[in-house]
Amino acid sequence: MQMRKLGTLLAMLALVGSLAWAGPGAKILIVDQTQTILEAMQLEVLARALLATGDFQLAATTELPRGPHPRGPFQFVVIVPERGEWVWVCTPTLPDRLPPELQAALRGLEEAIQQVFQGKRRAVDPGADLYPALWSAYFLKVGILEGIEG
Asked: Measuring CA to CA, how many Å separate 36 from each of 81, 110, 111, 117, 144?
């Protein structure tokens, strides 16, 4: 059964890696709070697929940051909680107020999350849920997320 799951993950890597986004090198911080090997592998597939596009720069941590990150600030923070059906995507403003290139990057990021987690988890951003909106406000305040001009 594990070999079948590995094969599925490798197929997803090929599929997601073939996608292209028009983002200008959006910087993403991934907060990985998962506890299973399968989800860790799925996050690896997500990271490799995003990097393969050339449109994303990634940093990762297992703890929620309390202050500026040495590789930040970021345009997006992706929180993958230990359990549940969501992946919270934090943004510096409401998604419909992002510049067009970051809106495109956000769509690509959320699509990749949906594909990698095969519908078992779904991406939720501040435009759809209060929880990522509160985290986004906090990350802006402590310098993790980069503010949007204008």
From this structure: 11, 21, 22, 13, 27
Q: What does the pLDDT look like over 107-138, one tens digit per residue?
A: 999 999 999 988 899 999 999 999 999 999 99
What is the phi-psi region of residue 43: left when phi exceeds 0, alpha when psi lies from -120 to 50, beta otherwise? alpha
Q: DSSP for the chain?
A: -HHHHHHHHHHHHHHHHT-----S-EEEEEEE---SHHHHHHHHHHHHHHHHHTSEEEEEESS--SS--TT--BSEEEEE-SSSSEEEEE-SS-GGGS-HHHHHHHHHHHHHHHHHTTTSSEEE-TTT-HHHHHHHHHHHHHTSBPPPP-
